[in-house]
Structures
1.
Amino acid sequence: MQQFIDKYDFTGKKAIVRVDFNVPLDENFNITDDTRIRRAMPTLKKVLAGGGSVIIMSHLGRPKKVDPKFSLKHIVARVSECLGVPVQFAEDCQSADAQAAALKPGEALLLENLRFYADEEGKPRGLAEDASDDEKKAAKAAVKESQKGFVKKLASYADCYINDAFGTAHRAHGSTALIADYFPNDKMFGYLMEGEIEAIENVLKNGRHPITAIIGGSKVSSKLAVLENLVNKVDNLIIGGGMGYTFIKAEGGKVGNSLHEDELIPQAKEIMRIAKERGVNLSLSVQTRVANDFSNDAEVKVVPSHDIPDGWEGMDAGADSLENWKKIILSSKTILWNGPVGVFEMPNFAKGTLQIAEDLAEATRNGAYTLVGGGDSVAAVTQMGYADKVSYVSTGGGAMLEAIEGKELPGIAAVRK
Ligand code: AMP
């Protein structure tokens, strides 16, 4: 049975908390963005203030073996600083028995990177490239078996389990899903996870109409399921960025050298058909800033999005597109945004995406509910200083996408079931 962190009595209890401390580090192992650490603090502090202790577990990067580069020891000092207590460190997440047992109320222990073990992901490692199907099957079965012991060991350290790692909630890994079974009556979400779930429900389940989704980014293929789900839920669907050109081509437009996926034109047409049938306003870019090279310093001109000359490629939304989208955004009561409407990494083509961030902040000021997710969209609102001027900024890229595809995430299901 799912418990709730606000109601749970942590007195004298040890809580094992899955967080997402997968923070970027520079070459000297300094943290370059500690957002993920800060966002987990309310949960960790709640346990400590409630008379409990915390055993914190996370992954960092994608190590395929024990690799000091990916050690969580690099972040112990910052976690201690944020938490306000010295955080102890267990150099092996599978032999922390004594340290966990010795934890007193108010104390914290951070376990070494879970992904130093293949068991965390439950996927075989080091298989020869020419391994036969039988060998692959046997390796998979072996890691699934050893994963049970791995998870059981982690669970043995604690009295209750908290999942606060939204960023990995779409993965059915040991620490994000399987471990919950060891705490049938003592499992719960942390505040960050609760906030993320509520934000998605505020849009997809309880959103006030008109609801608008702005989906940008590079490829239709990576967000096809998202578009297919949203077209059945929203009133306005803005499709921008690289993925927009597949739709423009599907409408018979000329896209020049712009990024597009011919093989997805049938799916794009189907999404447009459903939009028409449901009365959804599907809004594509009408004007594009094109360049003669995929480079920040390329020559630029502004052309109709449906008539991009050969040798030129769409790099950012033009002023007319942004004007249309602004009107839609400002007349909406609920807005979801994921993905840039241009090549955001190049300053000369970031303007459209920054304008969307500004429009969202304005809509929020006017009373709309606004949810922003995905690396570039989050970077755009942060760069404009608007991170606290929209309703919610999601910490999960892939997890948020899967949630807006309408899937139940394994990390959420495991606590709820
Ligand atoms: P995604 O990871 O799918 O959200 O896509 C983000 C990427 O889309 C960024 O790296 C952008 O540079 C890229 N992108 C956005 N618009 C365009 C465009 N018009 N042409 C090429 N790439 C684009």
2.
Amino acid sequence: MATKILVTGGTGYIGSHTVVELQNAGFEVVIIDNLSNSNIGVLDGIEQITGIRPAFVEGDVCDKTTLNALFEAHSDIKGIINFAASKAVGESVEKPLKYYSNNLVSLINLLDMMPHYGVKGIVFSSSCTVYGEPDVNPIDETAPIKVATSPYGNTKQISEEIINDYIRSGAAIKSIILRYFNPVGAHPSALIGELPNGVPNNLIPYLTQTAAGIRKQLTVFGNDYNTPDGSCIRDFIDVVDLAKAHVVAMRRMLENDQTEAVEVFNLGTGRGLSVLELIDAFQRATGVAVPYVIGERRAGDIEQIWAEPTKANTVLGWRAEMPIEDTMRHAWAWQLHLQNK
Ligand code: NAD
Ligand code: UFG
């Protein structure tokens, strides 16, 4: 019988790609999502790609009644991947309580219920934002955690502490914490991808919308940083590569291969790419021009950060494989799909 996994936030960007990879790997998936930042149509995309429509509960992970009912109905859930969270850095500064409440109460509810329902482990979506501005690059998992620069970033730091404290207290569960660098791209089928929500804050959705003529021009936020071309550097990780890491992590957790009850992995390519290099990669890969101007630095931006992914490469046996040009082509195909809908 297939092993059943609960994916919270499973109709979201990273969640939907992970559901595809879990189903392709033979897992049975139950999604819970309150559709606060996604829509029900994502299930159609998942079904078209995999031939399987995952079980879906529309509900809030912060609501214990809903969660209890879900675990009663699916008493054989063995693992959880917790994507459900609010993730807009700027909004978190405006509405900190929304972020502390949504991101922390949801996690606490899940942790609290796991032992009772015999759920063995939880994979948690963290972020390289916990490192702040690194002292050295590439940055590995032993680097110090810096003071968070936003309530959103703080929820990731606190979530990691909550998981550690709970398991240290003797709770009979395990956890794998995954620190994502910058997830980009879409499924190669162009049937699922990142859903735009108003004017995008993130680079790739803004770039693809500009290439499509929806936005007049892309502003590169600063070219006077201490980097080779003056623009910021990030580790752009393909979302399908990222999704696959969750399948490997889940197997490791359920097969009791963990050497520690809580393990932390960076998920990145190990390669830093500047904003200008990324624009260039997009233009080369798609042949589509992206009008851009150089603007002021964006407040709060980190100058440069990229991952040391050796731990994930060796311990998980996972590696980011997608060439950036392919990732850019997939992001563009997804943009075109959204317009033709
Ligand atoms: P997303 O917004 O696309 O997906 C999150 C999903 O969770 C959405 O479908 C939303 O409707 C749902 N959700 C939110 N709160 C919920 C709740 N209380 N109950 C039920 N459903 C809820 O975001 P994403 O980019 O797929 O991110 C997934 C996870 O990865 C988040 O925890 C995010 O903080 C983390 N992360 C994302 C990035 C990134 O750049 N995308 C980087 C690092 C970490
Ligand atoms: N950028 C531009 N122009 C834009 C948008 C972005 O030049 O219109 C630049 C930014 O200044 C930055 C780079 O592109 O240098 C990447 O910016 P994003 O907003 O795409 O991503 P961030 O690295 O700022 O943050 C993202 C997520 C956070 C997460 C972090 C680490 O938004 O939630 O990655 O995972 F915490």
